From TrEMBL:
PANTHER family: MANNOSYLTRANSFERASE YKCB-RELATED, MEMBRANE PROTEIN. InterPro entries: LipidA_mod_glycosyltrf_83 (IPR050297). Keywords: Cell membrane, Glycosyltransferase, Membrane, Transferase, Transmembrane, Transmembrane helix. GO terms for molecular function: pentosyltransferase activity. It is found in: Cell membrane. This is Glycosyltransferase RgtA/B/C/D-like domain-containing protein. GO terms for biological process: lipid biosynthetic process. It is a multi-pass membrane protein. One of its GO terms (cellular component) is plasma membrane. It comes from the Archaea. The chain crosses the membrane at residues 20-39, 45-64, 76-100, 106-126, 138-162, 213-237, 258-280, 300-327, 348-367, 427-444, 456-479, 485-502, 509-529.
Length: 666
């Protein structure tokens, strides 16, 4: 029988999956574009544009590819390339001096850091092959990450963030005081104690405080861990693009945040990167027992460190397993590889590893105490309640009070800056997302597809579902904000692959435009995003500061001593303490006054609380108060709105004031 026209056509030109994917992505972007008219959300407004632009660039590259691009590629003069490392080191020294002199990472600090970041990325993108020095650039990247994050830790009194006060001020201190892990048997971290044991052991070994022990261990490891992204990327691409992947990851906003807000998520991220590298290594080389042991030990370490990190790790393993099935079943001829792009290798069987990690996770979670039940049962119950009660298409209202407060602030926006800040916060992510889309299109070509790169593609896709897909349906149970730093790892590698693709295929003018976008805009966009500067927000009227001054910390300790730090059972309902968010978390998480909540300050009115604490920061920076309906919102308030004339001031240090019922009125 004769063959049909499709079969004969496929012999002449096999099905180009990358072409189909690019056209399909462009159509999806066109379909998603009108959603902006039904709901107001930054991703709905921007992702379709980013996706469409990436697909158009790839199609342009595909059908107008020039063969001699390398001969006319713009490169820096050798003298400039040789001078830039010195300029970077001088810039890093200036950053240290500036932060110490000003006592905080100010706007001028982030402007200078953006310039230094641009110099680093510029060397990677525009140095000639003869002048390119991967080791020197990696040193600059690590030093940059260390300086930008280390200065925040050095100049900030206490800790940066919210959760860290619980981990350091309660859990770790309990282990130290009792000398055993059983001291936190009531907490979910009892089954995931690696973070607390690390800090405790380091404090004893180095004979330093818990704070210093945390900074000397995890604080130093976090900047160095970006080398794992380079190592993983270098298994797939050349040194230049693997170095670019490391730089993109080191600059990423959420990665910077977990470098200063040092909690189990940070440690879980380090083990996740180690596992990602080991996974790529196993899939790319003829691995040994040592390689697979590193993969296994890294996955177990994640499980024993942090629950959310564990779930993200399982998503990565699921992506790797699905990639294995794709290449074993071989749909659409994906097994026909081009050895000049990715070396052909039989897919690695990961079924045993997936089953082991899922089984161990279920076992550990079933033994983990959480809210008077096991962690596994509580999480499943909470997820089912969320799906049943609040899930719905375009139901993008957040389930967290903090996000709800941000939403309230957005509704009240009246200035151009108010409207631009959410887009500035996401600009770096969107730029990297565009490069990631191009990288994904490149590797779906049947002759470039391989298990390792398909694992990165599927892992990125799955994570984006949790980060952007589920929240669109009102499902926030998976804490999407914790996923970004993990998501940036595969995105950085795929983004580097995407930029390499455009560099080799587009016309010189377009190549320069794309690389300049990453060089000039990406570093500043990531550094000015709110996650990069939680210790001292660049846009202080739009984002709360998650760090405190010496006087604010002293006030918490003094109020705790003055009240005797009563247990929750000893406090009557009318004796609750009220202040702004996030300051209220400091009282409750340090145990100074456990029954502390966000003050209710009606719009244009005054609070009606018996016991209230006011700090002068609330008068000119972004803090949260509840409105009359109990919804959090950013509100600047003076002291008279929290402390009424009929109340007595029982404590003040000039920056913090505590007021209580006056004896004359009782």
């Amino acid at each position: 029988m004769g063959r049909n026209p499709v079969e004969r056509l496929s012999e002449l030109r096999p099905l180009r999956l990358d072409t189909v994917a690019a056209i399909g992505g462009l159509l999806i972007a066109l379909v998603l574009f009108p959603l902006r008219f039904f709901a107001s959300q930054v991703y709905l407004n921007t992702v379709p544009v980013v996706l469409g632009t990436a697909c158009i660039l790839y199609l342009v590259r595909l059908y107008y590819q020039q063969q001699a691009i390398d001969d006319v590629r713009l490169t820096l003069p050798s003298r400039v390339t040789m001078a830039l490392p010195t300029a970077v080191l001088l810039g890093l020294a200036a950053l240290v001096v500036l932060a110490v002199h000003q006592g905080a990472r100010t706007i001028s600090f982030f402007v200078l850091a953006s310039v230094v970041g641009t110099l680093v990325v510029g060397q990677i993108c525009f140095a000639s092959d003869r002048d390119f020095n991967a080791r020197l650039l990696l040193l600059q990247i690590v030093l940059f990450a260390l300086v930008v994050r280390g200065t925040a830790l050095y100049v900030t009194p206490g800790f940066i963030g919210i959760d860290v006060w619980t981990h350091m001020g309660e859990l770790t201190e309990q282990i130290v005081s009792e000398g055993r892990v059983g001291a936190i048997s009531h907490d979910k971290h009892y089954a995931s104690p690696f973070y607390h044991l690390l800090v405790t052991a380091s404090s004893m070994l180095f004979d330093v405080s818990l704070r210093s022990a945390l900074y000397l261990t995890l604080g130093l490891v976090m900047p160095i861990s970006v080398l794992l992204v380079y190592a993983g990327g270098n298994l797939l691409v050349s040194q230049r693009w693997a170095t670019l992947a490391a730089a993109l990851y080191a600059l990423a906003s959420h990665v910077s945040m977990w470098g200063v807000h040092l909690i189990p998520t940070s440690m879980g991220l380090v083990f996740f990167l180690a596992m990602l590298y080991a996974l790529l290594r196993v899939m790319r080389i003829e691995y040994t027992t040592r390689d697979f042991s590193l993969l296994l030990l890294s996955s177990v370490a994640v499980i024993l460190t942090h629950q959310v990190s564990t779930f993200i790790m399982l998503v990565l393993l699921l992506a790797a397993f699905v990639a294995q099935l794709v290449f074993e079943i071989g749909p659409l001829g994906l097994t026909r590889l081009d050895a000049s792009v990715f070396r052909t290798k039989k897919p690695v069987n990961l079924l045993g590893l997936v089953v082991f990690n899922v089984g161990l996770t279920i076992f550990v979670w079933s033994l983990t105490p959480y809210r008077d039940d096991s962690f596994l049962e509580t999480v499943l119950r909470y997820f089912s309640e969320t799906v049943r009660e609040s899930a719905g298409f375009l139901n993008i209202a957040s389930g967290s009070s903090g996000d709800a407060a941000e939403g309230g602030a957005a509704e009240a926006a009246t200035t151009l800056l108010d409207e631009l800040v959410p887009y500035i916060d996401e600009l770096g992510f969107l730029i990297l997302l565009g490069a990631t889309f191009v990288g994904c299109l490149y590797i779906v070509h049947r002759r470039r597809a391989e298990q390792s790169v398909f694992t990165l593609l599927l892992a990125t896709a799955f994570m984006l579902v949790f980060v952007m897909g589920f929240p669109m349906f009102g499902i926030h149970s998976f804490i999407p904000n914790r996923w970004f730093a993990f998501l940036y790892a595969p995105m950085a590698i795929l983004g580097a692959i995407g930029l390499r693709t455009l560099d080799r295929g587009l016309a010189p003018a377009l190549v320069v435009a794309v690389l300049l976008l990453f060089t000039l805009v990406y570093p500043g966009a990531m550094l000015f995003a709110t996650e990069s500067n939680i210790d001292n927000p660049v846009f202080e009227e739009h984002h709360e500061q998650l760090a405190y001054t010496e006087s604010e910390l002293a006030a918490v300790g003094s109020i705790g001593e003055m009240t005797g730090s009563p247990d929750g059972d000893e406090i009557r309902p009318d004796q609750g303490l009220y202040t702004d968010h996030p300051y209220q978390t400091l009282f409750s998480r340090t145990g100074a006054y456990p029954s502390t909540d966000i003050a209710t300050v009606p719009e244009g009115g005054t609070a009606d609380h018996n016991y209230a604490v006011y700090r002068t920061t609330a008068a000119n920076e972004a803090v949260y108060f509840n409105n009359a309906d109990g919804q959090g919102r950013i509100e600047q308030a003076t002291v008279d709105r929290l402390c009424r004339p009929d109340q007595a001031t029982v404590y003040t240090n000039g920056d913090v004031t505590m007021c209580t019922p006056s004896p004359a009125t009782e």
